[in-house]
Design goal:
Length: 227
């Protein structure tokens, strides 16, 4: 069992951002199939949403034992308290995903290289994380972020032998709001009402604007590599 303890307290609040989760799920859905590894599954807030895709098996990997214990149990789900380093070093998965996780890992390049070793030929490695170091705030620091990413910085930490097939910013409306007044980011933790307001009103706007902007603007960034 891992001795890691997650320092953040935002997981329960962000679990209510159902429109946002549905949005990025639609972006990543085509890269999630077969035997799936979810790294940093947290409390399982994304697991049910993603595992409903037509996959063969789902493995939740979470280093914090207390968070791991909160992941909903399911006969079709494997739950492991640990990190990628605890897994066999053989190609085992068709899809490996990091949803708002990589920014919590100090050695991100080494992490993705290690994950790529567990990816079968033709499989996909997907990462979603916060964008733009200029938006780094006390909230990021409070929940253990080492960094925020640009398209360039996220691309550059990708596995050396992987082929990048998608790189995009998401949530243009959320970014514009953040630049305007830092409503969600200036505090050590956003309130539930702030998250619900963003989710209900700004995320639907982003879903319309992001394609018009060519996914060139947003406060989150997504990358997908293939083996």
């Amino acid at each position: 069992m891992s001795e890691y303890n997650y320092v953040g307290s935002e997981l329960d609040v962000f679990a209510k951002a159902v429109r946002w989760k549905t949005y990025w799920r639609s972006i990543l859905a085509q890269s999630i199939s077969g035997d799936v590894l979810e790294v940093g599954a947290g409390i399982g807030a994304n697991t049910g949403l993603l595992a409903a895709l037509p996959v063969k098996s789902w493995t939740c990997l979470e280093p914090d034992p207390q968070l791991c214990a909160r992941i909903p149990r399911d006969p079709a789900r494997t739950i492991i308290n640990g990190t990628v380093a605890d897994l066999p070093q053989v190609p085992t998965y068709d899809s490996i995903i990091y949803i708002d996780v990589l920014e919590h890992i100090e050695h991100d390049r080494a992490e993705l290289e290690a994950a790529f070793q567990r990816l079968r030929p033709g499989g996909h490695l997907s990462v979603l994380g916060p964008a733009h170091q200029g938006l780094f705030t006390p909230f990021d620091k409070a929940i253990g972020h080492y960094r925020r990413y640009s398209k360039t910085s996220l691309r550059d930490v990708g596995p050396a032998r992987a082929r990048l097939v998608r790189l995009a910013y998401l949530d243009s409306a959320g970014m514009l709001a953040s630049l305007g007044n830092r409503l969600f980011l200036k505090q050590s933790s956003p309130t539930q009402q702030q998250i619900l307001t963003w989710d209900r009103f700004l995320v639907p706007i982003s879903r319309r604007l992001d394609p018009l902007f060519g996914f060139a603007v947003g406060k989150s960034v997504v990358a997908v590599w293939t083996a």
